[in-house]
Amino acid sequence: AAGSMEAADGEKAGGGRNGHAEGPAAERGGGGRLKGCQDFLRRNVLVLLTVSGVVAGVVLGAAVRGAELGPAQVAYLAFPGELLLRMLRMVILPLVVCSLVSGAASLDTRSLGRLGGIAIAYFLGTTLLASGLAVALGFIVRPGAGASALNAPGLGLPGAVPTSKETVDSFLDLVRNLFPSNLVAAAFQTYATEYKMLLRNTTSGNVTWEKVPVGTEIEGMNILGLVLFALVLGVALKKLGQEGEDLIRFFNSFNEATMVLVSWIMWYVPIGIMFLVGSKIVEMEDIVLLVTSLGKYIFASILGHFIHGGIILPLIYFAATRQNPYRFLLGLITPFATAFATCSSSATLPSMIKCIEENNGVDKRISRFILPIGATVNMDGAAIFQCMATVFIAQLNNVELNPGQIFTILVTATASSVGAAGVPAGGVLTIAIILEAIGLPTNDLSLILAVDWIVDRTTTVVNVEGDALGAGILNYLNEKANKEKEQELKEVNVEAVANSKSEGETSPLVTHKNQVSNMSSPADPESKESVL
Fold first, then answer.
1. How many CA atoms lie within 13 A of 471 on its CB side?
2. Contacts of 448-453 spanning 24+ positions with Cβ under 8 A
């Protein structure tokens, strides 16, 4: 009875103690939730500010649009956004060169070759899929069929049509730019072929005009040549061994310092994006005419970008890694917003490298090796845009494309997107190559330029998304290969230890040592010394 009473008293006391403890526990629960919200805001404050900047830019542009600003006032409104673009372009050169040199030097030659081969296969495969999707959508939606109001005044931009270039010269220029004759000049100039018309007298006495290609240097960073040089330099420094370590450390330090600059610039991104989007909305002349005349083309292009970026690329990532691709993409909202506002893959590169390392945990060696190459070579969104524009112009001119021309479009778009400049409207220049390859007129490119500022935003987002998912796939494959190596080493070590034990048991020396140690007394220090 006494025991049961004591147990009851203990239960009452325990219940009292638990009752008193419920209040602080509830307080701790509320405080934990508050702390969790604070941690979430602290981690994602830049993402929230960037998205708010896009929304504020739309509101600002819609509010100022009715004021009928002149070109000078629009330029003043766009000034903060122009500063953002200049800062991002400022860090592209050191970021690309230093990250590729340090990335190539940190990977061994076998891993570099394996990862490089997988990356090239991924880039070519996804770009070819994007081109095929665009051509199929073009035949289904038929954006150029029945477009009657396209010759209305105010749609075309006749002065902005790029000059047509021969397809052979375009690919020769691509190869020439891979091997720049001057590395310093490659930082701000690119080789391009232009044409001069020369008067020739023929043997029959007639006078003919002959188009002669002439090489010139145009303004713009030759990023292809810099990428190839940085990769080869990194491999060469790795081959030097001890002698090249000082220079590798220099490029690593330079790279880390550049990333610190990028982290500072990222805090200015929301302000710059707000004024970029706002000024672009103010610049629009007649949005109603554009949408009614080119609405099917805009819809088909954005639909292609949505299908490729929202379904096909995540499926490829899931098939390769068996991980949720949308969780991976959720950590990259800031670079996607930057791509949407700037329309430049190269300008998005600094924020992409920072976010993919910090938010998604991608290895620095992988991200800084593959993302600069992807920003130059991998242009899935540009391939969709170019193929859709080509099908649109063919339908506009009532040209039925045969299978040979469709194959030419796919191959040319995949190849020419490699050399497409990672700058706003860079893909328009490569459409002229495709049109020349299949024999279509380039005069209608002014219509593409009229709506390029709309389509180019989703184009750039898909471009950088393809780069990011490619880096995620390579990071997963690299981690998997490293784990397999570690497992093999562990198995080898276990086998070696087991073999040494079995040898020890059969060895007469060890048996003799055990016998001596057994015979000797533990209290006798001299016998211990003799055994040792």
1. 34
2. 448/389, 448/392, 448/393, 449/157, 449/160, 449/161, 449/425, 450/155, 450/156, 450/157, 450/290, 450/294, 451/290, 451/294, 451/297, 451/298, 452/425, 452/428, 453/280, 453/343, 453/424
79-103 per-position pLDDT tens digit: 998 898 888 888 888 888 888 898 8
Whether residue 208 contacts residue 189, with contact meaning beta carbons closer than 8 Å, is answered with no
Query: What are the residue ranges spanned by the domains of the chain?
Result: 44-150+167-180+222-484, 181-221
Distance separating alpha carbons of residues 350 and 371, to the nearest angstrom? 10
Rounded distance between C-alpha atoms, residue 30 and residue 22, angstroms: 12
Closest to 376 (Cα-Cα) out of 259, 234, 227: 227
The answer to whether the beta carbons of residues 360 and 321 sit under 8 Å apart is no
Q: What is the 3-state secondary structure (H, E, C) of 78-138?
A: CHHHHHHHHHHHHCHHHHHHHHHHHHHHHCCHHHHHHHHHHHHHHHHHHHHHHHHHHHHHH
The answer to whether 157 touches 435, Cβ cutoff 8 Å, is no
Residue 134's nearest CA partner among 387, 403, 435, 426 is 387
Crossing angle for the helix pair 92-106 and 245-266, nearest 10 degrees? 140
- Tokens linked to 524: 């006798």
C-alpha dihedral sign at 166, 170, 171, 172: positive
Please give the Cα distance from 275 to 287 (Å, whole number).
19
Using CA atoms in the order 244, 248, 254, 256, what is the torsion angle rounded to 10 degrees?
Answer: -160
Question: What is the fold, at CATH topology level, of the domain defined by 44-150+167-180+222-484?
Answer: Proton glutamate symport protein (1.10.3860)
Distance CA 461, CA 352 (A): 11
Q: Give the amino acid at 512.
A: H
* Host H or E run for residue 463: helix 452-506
Rounded Cα distance between 338 and 23, Å, is: 47
Contact 350, 91 (CB under 8 A): yes
**Banded pLDDT at 507 (limits 50, 70, 90):** very low
Structure tokens at 28: 């701790």
Looking at residue 510, its pLDDT comes to 47
pTM of the model: 0.73
DSSP-based three-state secondary structure for 64: helix
Phi, psi dihedral angles at 369 (to 5 degrees): -90, -40
